[in-house]
Design the sequence.
């Protein structure tokens, strides 16, 4: 989980997701979904993550909430 979500964090994570099945070949036939969890964000970064197909999780106090739009379709890597 990130304290403050920034655009660079999203870009870096997406690069890692693209390589996930290479690093973990035992998952080569599995669906992989991505998620970013954070407390605060640089303006618009959560929306950017959602547009890229990531689940967006905002931590608040002792809990967390998935904040994606109702019609959100996650990307499968």
Sequence:
């Amino acid at each position: 989980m990130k304290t403050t979500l920034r655009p660079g964090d999203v870009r870096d994570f997406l690069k890692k997701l693209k390589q996930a099945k290479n690093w973990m070949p035992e998952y080569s036939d599995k669906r992989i979904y991505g998620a970013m969890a954070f407390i605060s964000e640089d303006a618009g970064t959560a929306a950017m993550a959602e547009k890229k197909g990531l689940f967006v999780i905002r931590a608040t106090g002792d809990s967390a909430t998935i904040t994606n739009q109702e019609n959100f379709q996650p990307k499968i890597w």
In short: Helices lie at 7-23, 45-51. The longest strand covers residues 35-41. The chain has two helices and four strands. The chain has one domain: 2-66.
